[in-house]
């Protein structure tokens, strides 16, 4: 599993998927993106939504250690990076993986980024993300003085501005617009040649329904699930307070059946 923005093995979705695969007797692994394990990484870079090179390296490491069927699920940011990798790889992806799925992933980064930076989302969710992202970026500056402008970072109050100061320049992009355009997985979905599920709730507050892919945007290898409800990695089942088992069960079962 590849986690979402500022996620980890402690995230609710990671725990829910781990429970499902444990129930089936499968093995489960969640690599932490750079800086998300609780320990600052050593290189003058972090992680980002389109980091398909990182996905490729991680999957190759798992493939070397595991001989049987192997599946990958990406949540939110992790799902965009995973689908970005699949689009880049084409038929070669099947040499590493038997099936993939993205869950609530912002595969149109510009549409999703502007949605998070607007209205209620900006006041609550953008502020929440930045509360951990900005201190971590300043830690990176302590490792590598001069890496970016700390005064500009301290003024940041949107993800767009953060990516302009930190994410884009650190990872070889001209600016936020260039990063969001080039890192988005949606344009590459037509090149995917491995069984792939793209799951997005149409009421996700971070991902406007109008930007979701249609059948014309994807290859025959890609199946789109776009239920009306589910929010952002919600999909709560049962009676109040509910549980999170239904979505992982459905995704894992899809992966198993799609690779038969």
Overall body shape: globular
**Gyration radius over CA:** 18 Å
The fourth-level CATH homologous superfamily of the largest domain is: Alpha/Beta hydrolase fold, catalytic domain
CATH level 1 name of the largest domain: Alpha Beta
How would you describe the overall organization of this protein?
- The chain has 260 residues and is of the alpha/beta class.
- The protein has 2 domains: 1-108 and 185-260, Alpha/Beta hydrolase fold, catalytic domain (Rossmann fold, 3-Layer(aba) Sandwich), CATH 3.40.50.1820; 112-183, no CATH class.
- The protein has 9 helices and 4 strands, in the order H-H-E-H-E-H-H-H-H-H-E-E-H.
- The protein has helices at 12-24, 52-65, 77-89, 109-116, 119-143, 150-155, 159-170, 176-183, 246-258; strands at residues 71-75, 99-103, 196-199, 222-225.
- It has a 4-stranded parallel β-sheet with strand order 1-2-3-4.
- Helix 3 (77-89) links the parallel strand 1 (71-75) and strand 2 (99-103).
- Helix 2 (52-65) crosses helix 3 and helix 7 (159-170) crosses helix 8.
- The longest helix has 25 residues, at 119-143.
Summarize the structure.
With 260 residues, this protein is an alpha/beta fold. Helix content is 43%, strand content 7%.
Ordered list of secondary-structure elements with their pairings:
Blueprint: H1 12-24, H2 52-65, E1 71-75, H3 77-89, E2 99-103, H4 109-116, H5 119-143, H6 150-155, H7 159-170, H8 176-183, E3 196-199, E4 222-225, H9 246-258
Parallel strand pairs: 1-2, 2-3, 3-4
């Amino acid at each position: 599993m590849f986690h979402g923005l500022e996620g980890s093995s402690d995230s609710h979705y990671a725990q829910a998927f781990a429970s499902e695969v444990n129930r089936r007797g499968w093995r489960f692994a969640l690599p932490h993106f750079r800086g998300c394990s609780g320990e600052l990484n050593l290189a003058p870079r972090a992680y980002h939504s389109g980091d398909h090179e990182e996905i490729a390296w991680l999957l190759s490491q798992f493939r070397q250690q595991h001989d049987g069927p192997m599946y990958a699920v990406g949540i939110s940011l992790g799902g965009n990076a995973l689908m970005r990798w699949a689009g880049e790889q084409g038929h070669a992806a099947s040499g590493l993986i038997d099936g993939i799925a993205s869950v609530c992933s912002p595969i149109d980064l510009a549409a999703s980024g502007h949605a998070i930076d607007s209205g209620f989302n900006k006041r609550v969710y953008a502020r929440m993300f930045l509360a951990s992202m900005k201190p971590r970026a300043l830690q990176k500056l302590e490792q590598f003085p001069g890496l970016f402008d700390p005064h500009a970072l301290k003024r940041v109050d949107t993800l767009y501005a953060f990516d302009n100061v930190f994410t884009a320049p650190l990872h070889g992009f001209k600016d936020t617009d260039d990063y969001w355009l080039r890192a988005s997985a949606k344009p590459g979905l037509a090149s995917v040649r491995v069984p792939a599920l793209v799951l997005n709730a149409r009421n996700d507050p971070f991902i406007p329904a109008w930007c979701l892919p249609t059948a014309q945007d994807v290859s025959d290898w890609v199946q789109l699930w776009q239920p009306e409800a589910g929010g952002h990695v919600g999909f709560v089942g049962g009676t109040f307070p509910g549980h999170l088992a239904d979505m992982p069960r459905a995704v894992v079962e899809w992966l198993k059946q799609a690779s038969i």
